[in-house]
């Protein structure tokens, strides 16, 4: 029997502490595909939708490709953008239905101007068209903030188990294989959600240091061996969003014909207790001055040192234009180095107008909010490259997908090559640097705006990794923020009350 399955994506991780908003231009800058554009761009890629296509073709589904919209992390999604994307999705669902099932790739931490749970807001619109009687499977980023309503709208949920997220395709495959079993009548899946009283937990989900998240995932895999437990997803949460559900959560997908809700609840509670036991284990970045001291003391032939500008990570909705780290590297005379990607469309246009080889004096960065992470930095440098910013991810994240930084330039200031871009882009792939002629492996120091994802691409060439907090928007010190919608009490804001 052929199953007719709608395949959809709507992904944004929304930082509510930024002054920015995510509009349609941001989706177009990343990707916004419709209909048959989706398999043409996603087939064979390391993405959730790529995994869904793989299962659809292997299982003989009749897949109906609806919409696939993705924007880099930024502020809440504007109502205009949300409405446009949702209307296109529901129109196609109405025109091309009925369906036997639906697959939706989400982030899990989307906030819109009209709903602090943008993901459920979108799922409600889908359910209004397809009804509540067919199974719906979702994939989630490991940093999802999950609201209780999710369990009313989806029956299957599978989250990434790696950070950096290098298992996107596998997660898409797993979710769709469970969906296929539901379509075949083998299982009757249901979803249960629990959360510990925490805003910060799971060591932010890091899986490269063999820390708490690795132990939690081992626990989840053991729990999954019980009869009727189909998946145990652990989300570290996203602290840069002031929403009720911010923080770690556990999602148990279970076969209601084989396991009871009480059994699933016991599984979730055991994992929540384990998350709580790790509450004091955080791998925090080092101060900027300590970072610079280490760079200055390193031997000239020590290989490629990679410095992560943690708090200015555009992958968490930071501005990506903070200049404190770049200024400190210049002051310290750090040579044979590169830094990127600094967001400054005005500077990119001005430098591109001067042309390659021009020596230019101008202010770069620090313009979105000069009070955060260093204001505009005046420099004199030489334009060494100009690019349209287009590239293909080589992996291990988003392997095979197209990407763009918009108009991009390389400005060489002293011994530092600064990549200046027109669209936000977390530095998680070596091909991003290469768009402006920077070969990462040839540099003694690489300064990247990222928290953790950079390790997938740059870890293999790094002689040493230094993670620093240079005063950007996404500082890990949550006590410096004012949360007004977050459930309370919650750790660590209310340590004495939880």
Description:
The chain has 498 residues and is of the alpha/beta class. Helices cover 29% and strands 24% of the residues. The protein has 14 helices and 20 strands. It has helices spanning 24-30, 37-42, 48-58, 79-96, 118-130, 150-153, 168-183, 212-223, 261-277, 288-297, 324-332, 345-354, 430-434, 454-458; strands spanning 4-11, 31-34, 62-70, 101-106, 136-140, 156-159, 189-194, 229-235, 249-255, 286-287, 304-309, 337-343, 359-364, 377-387, 390-392, 402-404, 408-413, 416-421, 445-448, 462-469. Helix 3 packs across helix 7 (168-183), helix 8 (212-223) packs antiparallel against helix 9 and helix 10 (288-297) packs parallel to helix 11. The model has no long low-confidence stretch (mean pLDDT 96).
Tag the structure with descriptive keywords.
6-stranded mixed beta sheet, about 30% helix, 9-stranded mixed beta sheet, alpha/beta, about 500 residues, globular
List the helices and strands and how they pair.
Elements: E1 4-11, H1 24-30, E2 31-34, H2 37-42, H3 48-58, E3 62-70, H4 79-96, E4 101-106, H5 118-130, E5 136-140, H6 150-153, E6 156-159, H7 168-183, E7 189-194, H8 212-223, E8 229-235, E9 249-255, H9 261-277, E10 286-287, H10 288-297, E11 304-309, H11 324-332, E12 337-343, H12 345-354, E13 359-364, E14 377-387, E15 390-392, E16 402-404, E17 408-413, E18 416-421, H13 430-434, E19 445-448, H14 454-458, E20 462-469
Parallel strand pairs: 1-3, 1-4, 4-5, 5-6, 10-20, 11-19, 11-20, 12-18, 12-19
Antiparallel strand pairs: 2-3, 7-9, 8-9, 13-14, 14-17, 15-16, 17-18
Helix pairs in contact: 3-7, 4-5, 8-9, 10-11
């Amino acid at each position: 029997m052929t199953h007719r399955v709608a395949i959809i994506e709507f992904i944004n991780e929304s930082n509510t502490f930024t002054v920015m908003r995510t509009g349609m231009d941001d989706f177009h800058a990343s990707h916004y595909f419709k209909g048959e554009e989706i398999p043409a761009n996603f087939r064979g890629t390391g993405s959730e939708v790529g995994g869904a296509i793989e299962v659809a073709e292997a299982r003989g589904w009749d897949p109906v490709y609806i919409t696939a919209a993705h924007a880099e992390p930024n502020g809440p999604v504007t109502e205009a953008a949300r409405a446009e994307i949702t209307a296109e999705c529901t129109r196609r669902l109405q025109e091309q239905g009925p369906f036997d099932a639906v697959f939706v790739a989400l982030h899990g931490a989307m906030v819109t101007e009209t709903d602090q749970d943008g993901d459920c807001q979108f799922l409600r619109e889908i359910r209004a068209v397809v009804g509540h009687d067919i199974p719906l499977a979702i994939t989630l980023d490991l940093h999802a903030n999950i609201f209780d309503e999710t369990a009313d709208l989806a029956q299957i949920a599978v989250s990434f188990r790696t950070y950096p997220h290098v298992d996107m395709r596998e997660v898409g495959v797993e979710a769709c294989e469970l969906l296929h079993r539901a379509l075949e009548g083998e299982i009757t899946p249901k979803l249960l959600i629990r959360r510990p009283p925490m805003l910060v937990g799971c060591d932010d989900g890091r899986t490269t240091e063999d820390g708490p998240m690795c132990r939690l995932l081992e626990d989840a895999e053991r729990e999954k061996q019980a009869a009727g437990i189909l998946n145990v997803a652990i989300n570290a949460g996203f602290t840069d969003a002031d929403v009720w559900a911010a923080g770690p959560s556990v999602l148990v997908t279970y076969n209601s014909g084989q396991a009871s809700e009480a059994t699933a609840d016991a599984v979730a509670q055991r994992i929540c207790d384990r998350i709580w036991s790790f509450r004091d284990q955080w791998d925090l970045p080092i101060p900027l001055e300590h970072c610079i001291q280490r760079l200055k003391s390193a031997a000239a032939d020590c290989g490629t040192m990679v410095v992560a500008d943690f708090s200015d990570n555009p992958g968490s909705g930071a501005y990506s234009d903070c200049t404190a780290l770049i200024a400190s590297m210049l002051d310290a005379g750090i040579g044979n180095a590169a830094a990127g990607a600094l967001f400054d469309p005005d500077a990119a246009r001005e430098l591109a107008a001067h042309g390659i080889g021009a020596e230019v004096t101008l202010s770069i960065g620090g313009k979105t909010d000069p009070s955060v992470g260093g204001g505009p930095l005046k420099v004199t440098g030489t334009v060494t490259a100009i690019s349209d910013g287009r590239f293909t991810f080589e992996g291990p994240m988003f392997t095979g997908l197209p990407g763009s930084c918009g108009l991009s330039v390389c400005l060489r200031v002293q011994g530092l090559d600064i990549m200046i871009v027109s669209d936000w882009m977390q530095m998680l792939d070596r091909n991003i640097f290469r768009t402006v002629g920077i070969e990462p492996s040839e540099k003694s120091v690489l300064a990247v705006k990222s928290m953790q994802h950079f390790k997938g691409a740059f870890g293999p060439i790094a002689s040493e990794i230094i993670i620093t907090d240079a005063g950007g928007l996404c500082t890990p010190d949550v006590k410096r923020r004012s949360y007004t919608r977050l459930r309370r009490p919650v750790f660590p804001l209310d340590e004495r009350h939880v």
